[in-house]
Amino acid sequence: MSVNSVRVIKLVALAGATVLVGAGAYMAQAGLTTLALERQQAAQVQARLEAARRLLPEVDKREALSRSVKEVTAKVNETGFDPAQWGERRIRRALGAVSRVDAAQFLSELRAGGRGALFVAESFELAAVSKDAGLFNSPDAGDQGLSLGVTGTLHFKTAAVAVDRP
What we know:
alpha+beta
């Protein structure tokens, strides 16, 4: 072999090695880019997983509420409760001073319906106005009455109306 042939072979080998190194570098760069994207996707999936785990207690509460509603509905259906036989009225008495007699009368009117009525309070405040007075003690001579405030809904049984159907 001549010197030129050896040089050509060496140049071809060098060129081949350069191409292989370039291809390897390209593949390594593509692999690193893919790895970075996959790490980013994994971080996003992890964040969504953590968010879902934080929501799990709320889901459990809603499932328990749903089961409770179903149980109550079943009990209501067993008793033959008819919502058409019940009415409701909103009651609101602003917080203010009232005598003990008036407070007792108001509270007895709330339960006047007996088993045919149900008061569902959203807020209920009752307090003695006098510093030394109590709710369950006999009032002193200087008693200033009570402070009473109520907000809620009074549910009451209405008269059943027979409906003739054709």
